[in-house]
């Protein structure tokens, strides 16, 4: 799955730009469009982390319909894929830890979007669940407003 979500940008009376995502909690703003888009990526990761923390399915991105896309960073996208694979396979943290030969707390950190993890550990966990992560490099004509990496599963 490509973790790219369309962002709604709204200009406020004071000239700042508010960024929000359809169906996701929260909003952020920036002094410029570029700043609002940078802040939107942090908002997106934080909003999606709520679903992971609650053990809920991550919402599928809606159609862009001309809106700019904000990409979940590569590590966090891999963590979302791991979370989704665990839900689909009904695998608990304890069971995945047993299969990987690690402590349950390690699996908890692998799923925590706000925790820095090593991508190799996430990749190993995904392999254990029958998933093969790949990286796709996107080329943008607007380098300031797009992130160029994403995980496609």
Plain-language structure description:
With 153 residues, the protein is an alpha+beta fold. Residues 146-153 have low confidence and may be disordered. The longest helix is centred in the N-terminal third of the chain and has 21 residues, at 33-53. It is 41% helix and 18% strand. The radius of gyration is 16 Å and the shape is elongated. It is built from five helices and six strands, in the order βββαβααααββ.
Topology:
Blueprint (H helix, E strand, L loop, with lengths): L3 E8 L5 E5 L5 E4 L2 H21 L15 E3 L2 H16 L3 H8 L3 H8 L7 H10 L5 E4 L11 E4 L1
Antiparallel strand pairs: 1-2, 1-4, 2-3, 5-6
Helix pairs in contact: 2-5, 3-4
Globular, elongated, flat, extended or rod-shaped: what is the shape? elongated
> Helix share of residues?
40-55%
Oligomeric state of the chains in view = single chain
**Which structural class fits the helix and strand makeup?**
alpha+beta
Rg of Cα set: 16 Å
Assess the beta-strand content as a share of residues: 15-25%
Q: What strand line-up does the widest sheet have?
A: 3-2-1-4
**Unreliable segments (pLDDT under 50, ≥5 consecutive)?**
146-153
Number of helices: 5
H-E order: EEEHEHHHHEE
Distance between the termini: 5 Å
Average pLDDT value? 90
Biggest pleated-sheet summary: 4 strands, antiparallel
Number of strands: 6
Which terms summarize this structure?
153 residues, alpha+beta, four-stranded antiparallel sheet, two-stranded antiparallel sheet, 5 helices, 6 strands, 18% strand, elongated, disordered C terminus
